[in-house]
Design a protein that fits this description.
Length: about 400
Amino acid sequence: AVGSCRRRRLAPLNEDNGRFLLLAALIAAYLSAGATVFSALESPSEAAAQLRWNRTLHNFSRIFNISLPELRAFLRSYEAAMAAGIRVDALRPRWDFPGAFYFVGTVVSTIGFGMTTPATVAGKVFLIVYGLFGCAGTILFFNLFLERIISLLAFIMKACYERQLRRSGLLPPNFRKGPAVSGVGSLVGWKPSVYHVMLILGIFAIALSCCASAMYTAVEGWNYVDSLYYCFVTFSTIGFGDLVSNQNAVYQHQGLYRFGNFMFILMGVCCIYSLFNVISIVIKQILNWVLKKFECRCCPKCHKSNTRLSRRNAITPGARLRRHNVARDADGQYDSDTEGRRLSGEMISMRELTASSKVSLAILQKQLSETANGYPRNVCINTRQNGFSAGVGALAIMNNRLAETSDSR
């Protein structure tokens, strides 16, 4: 039983890999469920529309005495004209400066409506180079926006938290920032709740979408549901292109509408991007909870054998190695004692016992130093980390600034 547990511990499926595989399985199931629902909802409508179109096509060919191959060739030319941006009704020019600016905005933000596409070879080649740097810079902008909006929310929520503590009498009126207060704990390391941040960002995204939808309903003539649908598709950078704003040739108060459309899209994309990242953190916590539920548990015999080993040796080789690694990472220098001779698999030499005592003394001295200097007591001892240990991009920002994520690591 002990050997099987050791083999399980040495298995390549660690927590990160397990979380990745679990998320991949959930995404596959989510995609399958979504495909099933949309197929059931939209397939009958598509079949009915195809039947109506075939009936209309044959009636038109019979009434006007036009052969079906000629009629289909004409319709293909019409589809090519639509792809080039030509419409029966008068529309705004696609490649004047405002239209081109609208196009590059949808490119770098990865919205990609598709109503305007470069037709020349030079334009397509330039788009590849332009989009490479433009999309990277825009993603960096979104991450910096996320960092600042989280910092702003943290500052506001911390001020509200301190005010609540003052009203309850747990903080003195002249308390600002400093060491811990008796009975309260230090507010230096206080972080906002990820659920509160998600709630605030969700409310702001809904309010922004409702205001933008009211504008699109009044100016574009869409119904309110279509306007909400357009806001979500655009702000989430899905960008189907079935509904596109600011495409008519003339609008009332055209300059003001173009500015409002640009600001709503910019603020909406930034807000939804931040909200998606917060939701992703919540999903990650759910995955961690599921992994703990499916955690490998040894058989009762193995538990009993581990209990006997722990009772016979207060300091086990595994515990000594873990403490030795922690102190070596904390202090940066520590002599290895792995060459110490062991008498058996469950006993350690005197050299190991001496080294473990030194480790405990080093940890105690470090904790006393941190307490004297006013640092939080839950500061991580393992300070030697590589550049990617805290995460990359938006996940790293959320882990460093929100409470549940940093505490769960």
